[in-house]
Write a structure and sequence with these properties.
EC 2.4.1.-, alpha-1,2-mannosyltransferase activity, GPI_mannosylTrfase, transmembrane
Length: 298
């Protein structure tokens, strides 16, 4: 199923995401990425309201994974019944994402709100809340790179309106990727110790995105490799930042999956084995070997 849809934040155009000092100076003139009329709190409040309405307006069926890979799994965890698709039998899906909705269902059951209407609407509203944070960071990223004029139109994307409030793992992957790209570009603009903090945030968000959807590594390997070539202390960056953060997220993710599967399960390895080494994913469509290099990155 991995070939049917990818992160909404594609690699197309990512190579052009570069820090612009002129726009950075403009953005920090009246405080870090705030202005008199467009404060972060106001933007976030607007995005929350916008995405909440968005979640109610989008009532169509788009992809089976928005149910079978998240809500159905969460329902089974909390209420003890529900269908698990073959991916969960093969151990190629992580429980990291469904557990978020399982926690929501548990709270709803405790409060006596586990009625059909609330069970249908609450997950979308939770996703809309998460998506609104992604909208804020998309605004900040756009402003950082392109300036105010472009940033003010960051919400006007019809496909994001159509998909971002759906309970797909792609939705939260997109939010984490946008946030990670913001902090990654932010650290490129500093030459002080603030650079290290911003870079670590970006790496942590990237690791979370890869834990939820391993295919997110395609984006981050590309972005990271380009900037690694320009770093003066490459080994220090790899061994003091990349590896510790990556190992921490992998361990937490493996412990969660061990707990939920009932046995030690390495989802990322099973995912690679099925989609790459055994060609199981070919059933859902394939590209030529050079597709990402010749077309995907263009």
């Amino acid at each position: 199923m991995e070939h049917r849809h990818r992160s909404f934040m594609t690699t197309s155009g990512i190579k052009n995401l570069k820090f612009n000092p002129r726009h950075h100076q403009q953005a920090t003139k009246d405080g870090l990425y705030t202005s008199l009329f467009f404060s972060e709190k106001r933007i976030l409040a607007f995005c929350m309201a916008f995405r909440a309405i968005n979640s109610f307006l989008v009532q169509t069926y788009f992809n089976p994974d928005e149910h079978w890979q998240s809500l159905e799994v969460a329902h089974r965890i909390v209420f003890g019944y529900g269908h698990l698709t073959w991916e969960w039998e093969r151990g190629i899906r992580s429980y990291f994402h469904p557990l978020m909705f399982a926690l929501l269902y548990k709270v709803m059951a405790f409060l006596g709100l586990d009625t059909p209407w609330f069970m249908m609407k609450a997950p979308r509203l939770l996703q809309s809340l998460i998506s609104s944070v992604g909208d804020l960071y998309l605004y900040k990223l756009s402003r950082l790179i392109f300036g105010d004029r472009v940033a003010q139109f960051a919400l006007l994307n019809w496909f994001m309106f159509f998909c971002i409030t759906r309970t797909l793992s792609n939705s939260i992957e997109t939010v984490l990727t946008i946030m990670g790209l913001y902090y990654w570009n932010l650290f490129l603009g500093f030459s002080t110790n603030a650079l290290s903090s911003s870079r670590k945030k970006a790496l942590f968000l990237a690791a979370l995105a890869c834990a939820i959807r391993p295919t997110s590594a395609v984006i981050w390997l590309y972005v990271g490799s380009l900037d690694l070539l320009r770093m003066p202390q490459k080994l220090k960056f790899l061994f003091h930042e990349v590896l510790p953060i990556g190992i921490f997220v992998i361990v937490i993710n493996c412990l969660l999956d061990w707990w939920m599967y009932g046995s030690l399960t390495f989802v990322a390895m099973n995912f690679l084995k099925f989609n790459l080494f055994s060609s199981g994913g070919d059933y859902y469509g394939t590209h030529v070997w050079h597709w990402y290099l010749s077309q995907g990155f263009q």
